Amino acid sequence: PGGRGSGMPNFDNTFLLLFEGYGWLPARRRGASGEVVHTRVMGQRAVGLRGPDAARFFYDEDHVERGTALPGFVKSTLFGHGAVHTLDGTAHRVRKAMFMSLMTGEGIAALVDATTAAWDAAAASWTGGRRVVLFDETARILTRGVCPWAGIPLDDADVPALAADLVALVDGFATLGPRHWRARRARARREEWLGRLVRDVRGGAVTAPPGSPLDVAARHRDADGELLDARVAAVELLNVIRPTVAVTWFVTFAAHALHRWPRHRAALRDGDATLTEAFAHEVRRFYPFAPFVGGRAVRELSWRGERIPAGALVLLDVYGQNHDPRLWEDPYAFEPRRFVGRRLGAFDLIPQGGGDPAAGHRCPGETVTVALLRALVTRLARLDYDVPDQDLTISLRRVPARPASGFVLTAARPAA
Ligand code: HEM
Protein backbone atom coordinates (compact mmCIF):
# COMPACT_ATOMS: atom_id res chain seq x y z
CA PRO A 1 0.00 0.00 0.00
CA GLY A 2 1.05 3.63 0.08
CA GLY A 3 2.61 3.31 -3.34
CA ARG A 4 -0.65 3.52 -5.23
CA GLY A 5 -0.26 5.97 -8.04
CA SER A 6 3.30 7.00 -7.32
CA GLY A 7 4.73 3.93 -8.96
CA MET A 8 2.22 4.05 -11.78
CA PRO A 9 2.64 7.42 -13.43
CA ASN A 10 -0.13 6.75 -15.91
CA PHE A 11 -2.74 6.09 -13.28
CA ASP A 12 -5.06 9.06 -12.88
CA ASN A 13 -5.46 10.05 -9.22
CA THR A 14 -8.45 12.38 -9.59
CA PHE A 15 -10.81 9.90 -8.01
CA LEU A 16 -8.43 9.15 -5.14
CA LEU A 17 -7.90 12.85 -4.58
CA LEU A 18 -11.62 13.46 -4.18
CA PHE A 19 -12.02 10.33 -2.08
CA GLU A 20 -8.98 10.60 0.18
CA GLY A 21 -9.05 14.36 0.74
CA TYR A 22 -6.27 15.73 2.94
CA GLY A 23 -4.47 12.40 3.10
CA TRP A 24 -4.13 12.05 -0.66
CA LEU A 25 -0.83 13.88 -1.33
CA PRO A 26 0.78 12.82 1.98
CA ALA A 27 -0.06 9.18 1.16
CA ARG A 28 1.42 9.49 -2.33
CA ARG A 29 4.49 11.01 -0.74
CA ARG A 30 4.95 8.13 1.69
CA GLY A 31 4.99 5.85 -1.33
CA ALA A 32 7.38 7.98 -3.38
CA SER A 33 11.06 7.19 -3.62
CA GLY A 34 12.36 10.78 -3.50
CA GLU A 35 11.36 14.33 -2.64
CA VAL A 36 8.82 14.63 -5.43
CA VAL A 37 5.49 12.86 -5.85
CA HIS A 38 4.78 12.03 -9.49
CA THR A 39 1.14 11.46 -10.27
CA ARG A 40 -1.69 12.40 -12.63
CA VAL A 41 -4.78 14.47 -11.92
CA MET A 42 -7.53 15.48 -14.30
CA GLY A 43 -5.70 13.71 -17.09
CA GLN A 44 -2.56 15.80 -16.59
CA ARG A 45 0.90 15.10 -15.23
CA ALA A 46 1.27 16.45 -11.74
CA VAL A 47 4.02 16.64 -9.14
CA GLY A 48 3.63 17.20 -5.41
CA LEU A 49 6.21 19.15 -3.39
CA ARG A 50 6.52 19.95 0.28
CA GLY A 51 8.76 21.89 2.67
CA PRO A 52 9.96 25.52 3.00
CA ASP A 53 12.56 25.17 0.21
CA ALA A 54 9.99 23.60 -2.08
CA ALA A 55 7.56 26.41 -1.23
CA ARG A 56 10.19 29.00 -2.17
CA PHE A 57 10.73 27.12 -5.46
CA PHE A 58 6.97 26.96 -6.08
CA TYR A 59 6.38 30.69 -5.47
CA ASP A 60 9.07 31.72 -7.98
CA GLU A 61 7.12 33.07 -10.98
CA ASP A 62 9.92 31.91 -13.17
CA HIS A 63 8.96 28.34 -12.23
CA VAL A 64 5.21 28.19 -11.76
CA GLU A 65 2.32 30.15 -13.26
CA ARG A 66 -1.34 30.14 -12.31
CA GLY A 67 -3.25 31.22 -15.43
CA THR A 68 -4.06 27.80 -16.84
CA ALA A 69 -3.74 25.69 -13.72
CA LEU A 70 -7.04 26.11 -11.89
CA PRO A 71 -9.77 23.74 -13.01
CA GLY A 72 -13.10 25.21 -14.07
CA PHE A 73 -14.98 23.62 -11.18
CA VAL A 74 -12.82 25.57 -8.70
CA LYS A 75 -13.23 28.86 -10.57
CA SER A 76 -16.99 28.35 -10.86
CA THR A 77 -17.30 27.91 -7.10
CA LEU A 78 -14.50 29.15 -4.85
CA PHE A 79 -12.69 31.96 -6.69
CA GLY A 80 -14.74 33.13 -9.68
CA HIS A 81 -13.69 33.49 -13.33
CA GLY A 82 -11.21 36.33 -13.89
CA ALA A 83 -10.17 36.39 -10.22
CA VAL A 84 -6.76 37.58 -8.98
CA HIS A 85 -5.93 33.94 -8.20
CA THR A 86 -5.78 33.19 -11.93
CA LEU A 87 -3.52 36.09 -13.01
CA ASP A 88 0.24 36.12 -13.56
CA GLY A 89 2.98 38.75 -13.94
CA THR A 90 2.10 42.44 -14.16
CA ALA A 91 -1.64 41.77 -14.46
CA HIS A 92 -1.45 39.92 -11.14
CA ARG A 93 0.62 42.53 -9.39
CA VAL A 94 -1.66 45.41 -10.35
CA ARG A 95 -4.81 43.53 -9.29
CA LYS A 96 -3.14 42.27 -6.11
CA ALA A 97 -2.21 45.83 -5.13
CA MET A 98 -5.94 46.56 -4.97
CA PHE A 99 -6.35 43.87 -2.30
CA MET A 100 -3.23 44.89 -0.41
CA SER A 101 -4.45 48.51 -0.25
CA LEU A 102 -7.49 47.36 1.75
CA MET A 103 -5.43 45.55 4.36
CA THR A 104 -4.09 48.49 6.31
CA GLY A 105 -3.87 48.55 10.10
CA GLU A 106 -6.81 50.96 10.35
CA GLY A 107 -8.94 48.95 7.95
CA ILE A 108 -8.27 45.73 9.82
CA ALA A 109 -9.07 47.30 13.20
CA ALA A 110 -12.40 48.61 11.85
CA LEU A 111 -13.31 45.14 10.54
CA VAL A 112 -12.41 43.52 13.86
CA ASP A 113 -14.51 46.11 15.74
CA ALA A 114 -17.53 45.59 13.51
CA THR A 115 -17.24 41.82 13.87
CA THR A 116 -16.77 41.75 17.63
CA ALA A 117 -19.80 44.04 18.01
CA ALA A 118 -21.80 41.54 15.94
CA TRP A 119 -20.48 38.68 18.11
CA ASP A 120 -21.43 40.47 21.34
CA ALA A 121 -24.95 41.16 20.07
CA ALA A 122 -25.41 37.53 19.00
CA ALA A 123 -23.87 36.03 22.14
CA ALA A 124 -26.29 38.01 24.30
CA SER A 125 -29.07 35.84 22.82
CA TRP A 126 -27.32 32.48 23.39
CA THR A 127 -28.79 32.21 26.88
CA GLY A 128 -31.67 30.30 28.42
CA GLY A 129 -30.57 26.85 27.27
CA ARG A 130 -30.75 27.72 23.59
CA ARG A 131 -28.97 25.26 21.31
CA VAL A 132 -26.41 27.19 19.31
CA VAL A 133 -24.60 25.76 16.27
CA LEU A 134 -21.40 27.75 16.51
CA PHE A 135 -20.44 27.25 12.85
CA ASP A 136 -23.73 28.72 11.58
CA GLU A 137 -23.81 31.54 14.12
CA THR A 138 -20.21 32.54 13.39
CA ALA A 139 -20.86 32.65 9.64
CA ARG A 140 -23.71 35.10 10.26
CA ILE A 141 -21.63 37.16 12.69
CA LEU A 142 -18.78 37.49 10.18
CA THR A 143 -21.26 38.36 7.41
CA ARG A 144 -22.75 41.08 9.62
CA GLY A 145 -19.25 42.39 10.35
CA VAL A 146 -17.74 42.32 6.89
CA CYS A 147 -20.51 43.63 4.62
CA PRO A 148 -20.90 47.13 6.10
CA TRP A 149 -17.09 47.31 6.35
CA ALA A 150 -16.86 46.43 2.65
CA GLY A 151 -19.42 49.13 1.83
CA ILE A 152 -22.02 46.55 0.82
CA PRO A 153 -25.51 47.50 2.00
CA LEU A 154 -27.26 44.57 3.68
CA ASP A 155 -30.60 44.30 5.46
CA ASP A 156 -30.52 42.31 8.67
CA ALA A 157 -33.18 39.99 7.26
CA ASP A 158 -30.83 39.07 4.37
CA VAL A 159 -27.91 38.04 6.60
CA PRO A 160 -28.76 34.31 6.99
CA ALA A 161 -29.19 33.72 3.24
CA LEU A 162 -26.00 35.59 2.34
CA ALA A 163 -24.00 33.82 5.07
CA ALA A 164 -25.27 30.47 3.76
CA ASP A 165 -24.27 31.38 0.19
CA LEU A 166 -20.77 32.52 1.21
CA VAL A 167 -20.25 29.31 3.18
CA ALA A 168 -21.54 27.30 0.20
CA LEU A 169 -18.90 28.82 -2.12
CA VAL A 170 -16.17 27.37 0.08
CA ASP A 171 -17.97 24.17 0.97
CA GLY A 172 -18.61 23.10 -2.61
CA PHE A 173 -15.30 23.54 -4.43
CA ALA A 174 -13.81 20.08 -3.95
CA THR A 175 -16.74 17.78 -4.59
CA LEU A 176 -18.83 17.02 -7.64
CA GLY A 177 -21.98 16.25 -5.65
CA PRO A 178 -24.90 18.43 -4.50
CA ARG A 179 -22.63 20.75 -2.48
CA HIS A 180 -20.92 21.67 -5.73
CA TRP A 181 -24.15 22.62 -7.49
CA ARG A 182 -25.27 24.60 -4.48
CA ALA A 183 -21.98 26.55 -4.72
CA ARG A 184 -22.45 27.29 -8.43
CA ARG A 185 -25.95 28.61 -7.83
CA ALA A 186 -24.71 30.75 -4.92
CA ARG A 187 -21.96 32.20 -7.10
CA ALA A 188 -24.29 33.06 -10.00
CA ARG A 189 -26.73 34.74 -7.59
CA ARG A 190 -24.10 36.75 -5.72
CA GLU A 191 -22.08 37.83 -8.76
CA GLU A 192 -25.25 39.20 -10.28
CA TRP A 193 -26.17 41.02 -7.07
CA LEU A 194 -22.75 42.61 -6.58
CA GLY A 195 -22.30 43.34 -10.31
CA ARG A 196 -25.49 45.39 -10.16
CA LEU A 197 -24.20 47.19 -7.08
CA VAL A 198 -20.92 48.07 -8.85
CA ARG A 199 -22.87 49.43 -11.83
CA ASP A 200 -25.04 51.49 -9.45
CA VAL A 201 -21.94 52.94 -7.81
CA ARG A 202 -20.46 53.84 -11.20
CA GLY A 203 -23.75 55.32 -12.35
CA GLY A 204 -24.13 57.38 -9.16
CA ALA A 205 -27.30 55.68 -7.89
CA VAL A 206 -25.38 54.32 -4.86
CA THR A 207 -22.57 56.04 -2.97
CA ALA A 208 -19.82 53.72 -1.77
CA PRO A 209 -18.07 54.75 1.45
CA PRO A 210 -14.73 56.24 0.33
CA GLY A 211 -11.90 53.71 0.56
CA SER A 212 -14.25 50.78 1.17
CA PRO A 213 -13.69 47.59 -0.86
CA LEU A 214 -16.83 48.44 -2.89
CA ASP A 215 -15.45 51.90 -3.73
CA VAL A 216 -11.98 50.53 -4.49
CA ALA A 217 -13.23 47.66 -6.69
CA ALA A 218 -15.61 49.96 -8.60
CA ARG A 219 -12.79 52.41 -9.37
CA HIS A 220 -9.86 50.00 -9.77
CA ARG A 221 -8.01 50.06 -13.09
CA ASP A 222 -6.23 46.93 -14.24
CA ALA A 223 -2.78 46.81 -15.86
CA ASP A 224 -4.40 47.69 -19.21
CA GLY A 225 -5.74 50.95 -17.71
CA GLU A 226 -9.36 49.80 -17.97
CA LEU A 227 -11.99 49.61 -15.25
CA LEU A 228 -12.86 46.08 -14.22
CA ASP A 229 -15.79 44.51 -15.96
CA ALA A 230 -18.65 44.84 -13.40
CA ARG A 231 -18.83 41.05 -13.13
CA VAL A 232 -15.10 40.78 -12.39
CA ALA A 233 -15.41 43.57 -9.81
CA ALA A 234 -18.17 41.47 -8.24
CA VAL A 235 -15.88 38.42 -8.32
CA GLU A 236 -13.21 40.35 -6.43
CA LEU A 237 -15.69 41.75 -3.90
CA LEU A 238 -16.72 38.18 -3.26
CA ASN A 239 -13.01 37.40 -2.88
CA VAL A 240 -13.00 39.78 0.08
CA ILE A 241 -16.24 38.85 1.83
CA ARG A 242 -16.23 35.09 1.06
CA PRO A 243 -12.86 34.31 2.70
CA THR A 244 -13.58 36.65 5.60
CA VAL A 245 -16.69 34.62 6.35
CA ALA A 246 -14.55 31.47 5.91
CA VAL A 247 -12.78 32.41 9.15
CA THR A 248 -15.86 30.59 10.52
CA TRP A 249 -14.00 27.32 9.91
CA PHE A 250 -11.10 28.40 12.11
CA VAL A 251 -13.37 29.71 14.89
CA THR A 252 -15.18 26.36 14.90
CA PHE A 253 -11.85 24.51 14.98
CA ALA A 254 -10.77 26.77 17.85
CA ALA A 255 -13.89 25.72 19.79
CA HIS A 256 -13.01 22.11 19.04
CA ALA A 257 -9.46 22.66 20.37
CA LEU A 258 -10.70 24.37 23.55
CA HIS A 259 -13.06 21.47 24.13
CA ARG A 260 -10.40 18.80 23.57
CA TRP A 261 -7.58 20.59 25.39
CA PRO A 262 -9.28 22.88 27.94
CA ARG A 263 -5.97 23.79 29.57
CA HIS A 264 -5.49 26.45 26.88
CA ARG A 265 -8.60 28.34 27.90
CA ALA A 266 -7.16 30.25 30.86
CA ALA A 267 -4.50 32.13 28.88
CA LEU A 268 -7.05 33.18 26.27
CA ARG A 269 -9.54 34.20 28.93
CA ASP A 270 -6.86 36.34 30.59
CA GLY A 271 -6.18 38.10 27.31
CA ASP A 272 -2.55 36.92 27.13
CA ALA A 273 -1.64 38.46 23.74
CA THR A 274 1.36 36.23 23.02
CA LEU A 275 -0.47 32.99 23.74
CA THR A 276 -3.61 34.13 21.96
CA GLU A 277 -1.62 34.78 18.80
CA ALA A 278 0.20 31.46 19.23
CA PHE A 279 -3.16 29.72 19.64
CA ALA A 280 -4.44 31.31 16.41
CA HIS A 281 -1.34 30.11 14.53
CA GLU A 282 -1.66 26.61 15.96
CA VAL A 283 -5.32 26.41 14.90
CA ARG A 284 -4.29 27.42 11.38
CA ARG A 285 -1.41 24.89 11.34
CA PHE A 286 -3.07 21.94 13.04
CA TYR A 287 -6.54 21.82 11.52
CA PRO A 288 -7.16 20.91 7.87
CA PHE A 289 -8.40 23.65 5.53
CA ALA A 290 -6.62 24.26 2.20
CA PRO A 291 -5.22 20.84 1.19
CA PHE A 292 -2.71 22.22 -1.34
CA VAL A 293 -2.14 25.12 -3.74
CA GLY A 294 -1.31 24.53 -7.37
CA GLY A 295 0.13 26.01 -10.54
CA ARG A 296 1.76 24.89 -13.76
CA ALA A 297 5.48 24.49 -14.60
CA VAL A 298 6.31 27.28 -17.07
CA ARG A 299 9.21 25.23 -18.51
CA GLU A 300 11.07 22.06 -17.73
CA LEU A 301 12.23 22.32 -14.13
CA SER A 302 14.43 20.34 -11.84
CA TRP A 303 13.81 20.01 -8.13
CA ARG A 304 16.33 18.16 -5.93
CA GLY A 305 17.56 16.34 -8.98
CA GLU A 306 14.13 15.27 -10.21
CA ARG A 307 12.76 16.41 -13.53
CA ILE A 308 9.45 18.29 -13.67
CA PRO A 309 8.24 18.39 -17.27
CA ALA A 310 7.12 21.70 -18.78
CA GLY A 311 3.37 22.13 -18.38
CA ALA A 312 3.03 19.69 -15.46
CA LEU A 313 0.77 20.71 -12.59
CA VAL A 314 2.85 21.56 -9.53
CA LEU A 315 1.05 21.06 -6.21
CA LEU A 316 2.43 22.44 -2.97
CA ASP A 317 1.25 20.13 -0.20
CA VAL A 318 -0.08 22.63 2.36
CA TYR A 319 -1.62 20.12 4.74
CA GLY A 320 1.45 17.86 4.51
CA GLN A 321 3.86 20.72 5.18
CA ASN A 322 1.84 21.92 8.16
CA HIS A 323 2.26 18.42 9.64
CA ASP A 324 5.81 17.70 8.55
CA PRO A 325 7.89 16.43 11.52
CA ARG A 326 11.01 17.97 9.95
CA LEU A 327 9.43 21.37 10.49
CA TRP A 328 7.15 20.85 13.50
CA GLU A 329 8.09 18.72 16.47
CA ASP A 330 5.34 16.23 17.29
CA PRO A 331 3.16 17.70 14.50
CA TYR A 332 -0.05 15.91 15.50
CA ALA A 333 0.01 17.42 19.00
CA PHE A 334 -1.98 20.65 19.40
CA GLU A 335 0.61 22.84 21.10
CA PRO A 336 0.30 26.64 20.70
CA ARG A 337 3.52 27.18 22.64
CA ARG A 338 5.51 25.94 19.68
CA PHE A 339 4.94 29.41 18.23
CA VAL A 340 6.11 31.38 21.27
CA GLY A 341 9.51 32.88 20.49
CA ARG A 342 9.71 31.05 17.14
CA ARG A 343 10.80 33.19 14.21
CA LEU A 344 8.56 32.28 11.29
CA GLY A 345 10.14 32.29 7.85
CA ALA A 346 8.04 33.38 4.86
CA PHE A 347 7.71 29.76 3.72
CA ASP A 348 7.29 27.90 7.04
CA LEU A 349 3.66 28.21 8.14
CA ILE A 350 1.61 28.06 4.94
CA PRO A 351 -2.11 27.47 5.66
CA GLN A 352 -2.70 30.63 3.58
CA GLY A 353 0.20 30.21 1.18
CA GLY A 354 3.83 31.34 1.45
CA GLY A 355 6.17 34.10 0.35
CA ASP A 356 5.41 37.82 0.04
CA PRO A 357 1.69 38.53 -0.40
CA ALA A 358 2.33 41.75 -2.37
CA ALA A 359 4.63 40.07 -4.89
CA GLY A 360 3.15 36.58 -5.17
CA HIS A 361 -0.08 34.70 -4.59
CA ARG A 362 0.12 34.40 -0.81
CA CYS A 363 -3.19 35.29 0.83
CA PRO A 364 -3.54 39.06 1.38
CA GLY A 365 -6.02 38.37 4.18
CA GLU A 366 -3.71 36.57 6.57
CA THR A 367 -3.30 39.48 8.99
CA VAL A 368 -7.07 39.95 8.95
CA THR A 369 -7.60 36.26 9.59
CA VAL A 370 -5.28 36.24 12.59
CA ALA A 371 -6.76 39.48 13.98
CA LEU A 372 -10.33 38.15 13.68
CA LEU A 373 -9.39 34.81 15.11
CA ARG A 374 -7.63 36.40 18.08
CA ALA A 375 -10.61 38.60 18.87
CA LEU A 376 -13.21 35.85 18.48
CA VAL A 377 -11.35 33.09 20.35
CA THR A 378 -10.85 35.49 23.27
CA ARG A 379 -14.62 35.99 23.36
CA LEU A 380 -15.25 32.28 23.01
CA ALA A 381 -12.86 31.51 25.87
CA ARG A 382 -14.66 34.05 28.05
CA LEU A 383 -18.00 32.39 27.48
CA ASP A 384 -19.18 29.59 29.79
CA TYR A 385 -21.15 26.93 27.95
CA ASP A 386 -22.00 23.26 27.91
CA VAL A 387 -21.04 20.98 25.07
CA PRO A 388 -23.84 18.40 24.74
CA ASP A 389 -23.28 14.96 23.18
CA GLN A 390 -22.72 15.38 19.47
CA ASP A 391 -20.59 14.15 16.59
CA LEU A 392 -17.40 16.22 16.75
CA THR A 393 -15.42 14.03 14.37
CA ILE A 394 -13.52 15.86 11.66
CA SER A 395 -13.28 13.67 8.58
CA LEU A 396 -10.10 14.19 6.59
CA ARG A 397 -11.94 12.82 3.58
CA ARG A 398 -14.26 15.80 3.44
CA VAL A 399 -12.69 18.90 1.85
CA PRO A 400 -13.11 21.39 3.39
CA ALA A 401 -13.20 19.55 6.73
CA ARG A 402 -15.26 20.62 9.73
CA PRO A 403 -16.57 19.08 12.95
CA ALA A 404 -19.59 17.09 11.76
CA SER A 405 -22.02 18.72 14.21
CA GLY A 406 -20.83 22.27 13.49
CA PHE A 407 -20.03 22.46 17.23
CA VAL A 408 -23.21 22.73 19.27
CA LEU A 409 -23.11 24.59 22.57
CA THR A 410 -25.88 25.25 25.08
CA ALA A 411 -26.60 27.38 28.14
CA ALA A 412 -24.04 30.01 27.28
CA ARG A 413 -23.41 32.75 29.81
CA PRO A 414 -20.55 35.24 30.00
CA ALA A 415 -17.71 33.95 32.17
CA ALA A 416 -17.80 35.15 35.76
C1 HEM B 1 -5.35 33.45 -1.41
C2 HEM B 1 -6.30 30.73 2.46
C3 HEM B 1 -8.70 34.42 4.48
C4 HEM B 1 -8.29 36.89 0.36
C5 HEM B 1 -5.34 32.43 -0.49
C6 HEM B 1 -4.66 31.17 -0.67
C7 HEM B 1 -4.93 30.41 0.41
C8 HEM B 1 -5.77 31.19 1.29
C9 HEM B 1 -4.46 28.98 0.66
C10 HEM B 1 -3.89 30.75 -1.92
C11 HEM B 1 -2.43 31.03 -1.85
C12 HEM B 1 -1.79 30.66 -3.15
O1 HEM B 1 -2.46 30.43 -4.15
O2 HEM B 1 -0.56 30.59 -3.22
C13 HEM B 1 -7.10 31.49 3.30
C14 HEM B 1 -7.67 30.99 4.52
C15 HEM B 1 -8.34 32.03 5.10
C16 HEM B 1 -8.20 33.18 4.22
C17 HEM B 1 -7.54 29.57 5.04
C18 HEM B 1 -9.12 32.05 6.38
C19 HEM B 1 -10.24 31.46 6.49
C20 HEM B 1 -8.70 35.46 3.59
C21 HEM B 1 -9.25 36.76 3.83
C22 HEM B 1 -9.15 37.46 2.66
C23 HEM B 1 -8.53 36.59 1.68
C24 HEM B 1 -9.82 37.22 5.16
C25 HEM B 1 -9.56 38.86 2.32
C26 HEM B 1 -10.07 39.72 3.15
C27 HEM B 1 -7.53 36.13 -0.50
C28 HEM B 1 -7.22 36.51 -1.88
C29 HEM B 1 -6.35 35.52 -2.37
C30 HEM B 1 -6.16 34.57 -1.30
C31 HEM B 1 -7.75 37.73 -2.61
C32 HEM B 1 -5.73 35.45 -3.77
C33 HEM B 1 -4.34 36.02 -3.72
C34 HEM B 1 -3.57 35.90 -5.01
O3 HEM B 1 -3.87 35.03 -5.84
O4 HEM B 1 -2.65 36.70 -5.20
N1 HEM B 1 -6.00 32.43 0.72
N2 HEM B 1 -7.44 32.80 3.15
N3 HEM B 1 -8.26 35.40 2.29
N4 HEM B 1 -6.87 34.96 -0.19
FE1 HEM B 1 -7.05 33.95 1.52
List the helices and strands and how they pair.
Blueprint (H helix, E strand, L loop, with lengths): L13 H7 L3 H8 L5 E5 L2 E6 L2 H7 L5 E2 L6 H8 L9 H14 L2 H19 L7 E3 H17 L8 H13 L6 H26 L9 H7 L10 H16 L1 H14 L4 H5 L3 H14 L6 E5 L3 E3 L2 E3 L4 E4 L1 H4 L44 H16 L1 E4 L21 E7 L2
Parallel strand pairs: 2-8
Antiparallel strand pairs: 1-2, 3-5, 4-10, 5-8, 6-7, 9-10
Helix pairs in contact: 4-9, 6-7, 6-16, 7-8, 7-11, 7-12, 8-9, 8-11, 9-10, 9-11, 10-11, 12-14, 12-16, 14-16
The structure holds protoporphyrin IX containing FE (HEM).
Spatial extent as radius of gyration: 21 Å
CATH topology: Cytochrome p450
Distance, first to last CA:
53 Å
SSE series: HHEEHEHHHEHHHHHHHHEEEEHHEE
How many strands appear in the DSSP assignment?
A: 10
Q: Stretches where pLDDT falls below 50 for ≥5 residues?
A: 1-10
Determine and state the CATH class: Mainly Alpha
* Largest sheet strand order: 1-2-8-5-3
Q: In total, how many domains does the architecture comprise?
A: 1
CATH superfamily: Cytochrome P450
Q: Determine the number of helices (DSSP H or I, runs of at least 4 residues).
A: 16
What level of helicity do the residues show?
40-55%
What binds here, in terms of ligands, is: protoporphyrin IX containing FE
Shape: globular
CATH architectural type: Orthogonal Bundle
Coarse structural class:
alpha+beta
Largest sheet: 5 strands, mixed
- Beta fraction: 5-15%
Question: What is the residue-averaged pLDDT?
Answer: 94
InterPro entries: Cyt_P450, Cyt_P450_E_grp-I, Cyt_P450_sf
Keywords: Heme, Iron, Metal-binding, Monooxygenase, Oxidoreductase
Cofactor: heme
Protein name: Fatty-acid peroxygenase
